[in-house]
Automatic annotation (TrEMBL), chains A, B:
NCBIfam families: cinA_nterm (TIGR00200), molyb_syn (TIGR00177), PncC_domain (TIGR00199), PRK00549.1 (NF001813). It comes from the Bacteria. InterPro entries: CinA (IPR050101), CinA-like_C (IPR036653), CinA_C (IPR008136), CinA_KH (IPR041424), Competence-induced_CinA (IPR008135), MoaB/Mog-like_dom_sf (IPR036425), MoaB/Mog_dom (IPR001453). This is CinA-like protein. Residues 4-172 form the MoaB/Mog domain. Belongs to the CinA family. SMART domains: MoCF_biosynth. Coiled coil: none annotated. It comes from Marinirhabdus gelatinilytica. SUPFAM superfamilies: CinA-like, Molybdenum cofactor biosynthesis proteins.
Length: 415, 415
């Protein structure tokens, strides 16, 4: 079966916000064997919505629509659905009670008429109860295609999709299984990898698809297959993946379906009852932010310092000022001293340290923009590596963050 | 004139990556008066690409296509453009030289045949030179619609769009002006705001459009207008915005077109030669990461500590252990002590501190998940506020980060 996603809202089309909802919806639907054929972002405008609904109806069995359900008058989605379905808006008592409950419990004021108007829904819609907000989810149908309308607020949408929409989709449709397995590799480009695995790739059966997904220092290799029997799919894709892993054993770090690299580090450190701290200069908190975004980080993550000013590396971390004077602040010696002091300051088993020039200007450094030293202190000692990550600030920070996780994982696996 | 964006790649449709390119392209085109009518994400598959190109041709003057230009065999965009344009691939000498140059200078190995095949382009395409990568940009035409094909790698796409595509668009098309002005507000919901400004909104002229953009504790109010005369647009929108700002003076913090809140804080601190440091517990580096993502942060940002483990608040920040014992670690007293110690540790004028329970579990705390204290130490003293940000980890961190910036801006403006 095929699904499509339609996001409604001028804010996406003028580039004011990035559409993160569609990725979440696609991934979730994929997980239960529903293939997303197309994602379309359209204007908050009746004619455009009607056209998009009609086009999607002709291609898909299920159309997920987000956005345009606010209490304010720039939102026209519900009225447009009535036109599309030849239906009319009626007040829904259950939705009204939910709105009143949310205002009483969380908003702590009396709802305005515009808030209460969110209880108006197309008469044929099945209501999906939104415990996180006042706009209800709606499940509607036209000529055997199901249309689901949800608010665009990400956590409301996520709740409705996983708790209300998914069980209904599972019940209604026979779905094939879709199975993806993704190998994470570090350190080689996609063309080099392709050259290395070309004989294997040529011989890949037609029903297994290979995709190369390059991004800043990583290439992910994804194998995908679709079919009625989940066990067979897993076996067929798994066997090919084993061969691929063997071919790329020097640069492979793990499978992404099972875990990403932070989660793998987290699991390893927890299983060994070891801990981590960070001293981030040029990455400015980006590594800590990725680590603490994952629940349970507090089990192994002791904490971090961002000694952004050169001087703070001495006063906060306590490294010897002469090391900076002799080697400059962006140097292997300073990176190593930061990591060593970080282990002592936080009492952790491992410490990661970064010092470099993210750009666009050089600051206190003499090296080129993009130069980054990453050091790791472990129970076995301390070492640093030098990198050149180019001259785009965002890319330097991201590449340094990725590289730091890669080095740390390799080091933990060694010990 | 109308533009459309087509992104090619299964990785978007299976939710493996978030499409950030489209937001950048939309915003950039909008800035030169080009309206983006629709964004469509499609499969890396010939028939789907052909259909999407044909549909877009019938609606738009300019179609920007990203993705599907890698050296590996899962990318079919160029071959499909040849079919669409009734053209054939020919080797382009300039592109070939660029590929060889990039391999010699950056990759530091001999290009493989698959790398050199990236020099094959449709014979009628105008080449847009990609200094950051081996896949060229291409400018093609069919029945008076221009098609631009670019690689999906974000920094390559950004370079090509701004340096190569934009000047050609400006030269070729007469464009109206599109003018947006966005007011940032904090602390009231969209329906409350609407109720408060309804008389003004009713009287808004038809050619000025108002949009409400709510997100975790903020509502942005955007006024938009399109027309031939830029000065008239700015004047008309500006006059309405002045009235709106006056109506919402208690909750308005600034205009987003001019600056976002971090940039405003940055500009204010720099103009006063004042500095900032952070002690982030529950936000885990998220505030530092947002601050250091902006070039020039080193001028006013001294550094930060993430004392993630309770114990580190004592050993690293140096707060009195009895304060924690008496009040628990998630308390106004601890937040204030963190901010005060942070000012001393980093020698900064301001410090922001966060302590709370991001969830899903409570850790060392007795309070409910979602409870966050944010403290600010300033030259005038220290204070803390308590918040309840719900029980979704990602949302708690994001809301606390937004709120911290809001409190800091207000405090700086007072001093």
């Amino acid at each position: 079966m095929l699904a499509e996603i339609i996001t409604i809202g001028d804010e996406i089309l003028i580039g004011q916000i990035v559409d993160t909802n569609s990725a979440f919806i696609s991934k979730t639907l994929n997980g239960i064997g529903v293939k997303v054929f197309q994602i379309t972002s359209i204007q908050d405008e009746e004619h455009h919505i009607l056209t998009a609904l009609e086009d999607a109806k002709n291609r898909a069995d299920l159309v997920i629509v987000t956005g345009g359900l606010g209490p304010t008058k720039d939102d026209v989605t519900k009225e447009t659905f009535c036109k599309f379905l030849d239906d009319k808006l009626v007040k829904n008592e259950k939705v009204l009670q939910n709105i009143k409950h949310i205002f009483k419990t969380y908003v702590k004021r009396v709802p305005l008429p515009s808030n209460l108007s969110q209880a108006l829904v197309p008469s044929t819609a099945t209501i999906l109860n939104n415990i996180h907000g006042t706009a209800p989810g709606m499940w509607m149908e036209k000529e055997n295609t199901v249309f689901v309308s949800m608010p665009g607020v990400p956590y409301e949408m996520k709740y409705l999709l996983t708790q209300e929409v998914l069980p209904r989709v599972v019940k209604r449709y026979n779905r094939p299984h879709i199975y993806h397995k993704t190998l994470l590799t570090y350190g080689k480009g996609e063309s080099e990898i392709q050259e290395h695995i070309k004989d294997w790739e040529e011989a890949l059966p037609n029903d297994i698809k290979l995709a190369y997904l390059p991004s800043l220092g990583r290439v992910r290799l994804r194998l995908s297959s679709t079919g009625p029997n989940e066990e067979q799919l897993k076996k067929a894709v798994g066997a090919q993946m084993d061969t691929l892993h063997e071919l790329l054993v020097d640069i492979a770090v793990g499978y992404e379906d099972e875990t990403n690299i932070q989660e793998r580090i987290s699991a390893l450190l927890q299983s060994k009852s070891q801990s981590l701290s960070l001293a981030e200069s040029c990455t400015g908190g980006a590594i800590a932010q990725e680590i603490t975004a994952v629940p349970g980080a507090s089990v192994y993550f002791k904490g971090s310092v961002v000694p952004y000013e050169t001087h703070q590396k001495v006063t906060v971390l306590g490294i010897d000022e002469t090391i900076i004077q002799k080697n400059t602040v962006v140097s292997a010696q300073v990176a190593k001293a930061m990591a060593t002091k970080c282990v002592r300051l936080f009492g952790s088993d491992y410490a990661l340290a970064t010092t470099g020039i993210a750009g666009p200007t050089k600051g206190d450094a003499t090296d080129e923009v993009g130069t980054v030293y990453i050091a790791i202190a472990s129970p076995k000692g301390v070492f640093a590596e030098k990198f050149s990550f180019g001259n785009l600030r965002e890319r330097v920070i991201k590449k340094a963050t990725n590289k730091a996780f890669e080095m740390l994982l390799k080091e933990i696996l060694k010990n």
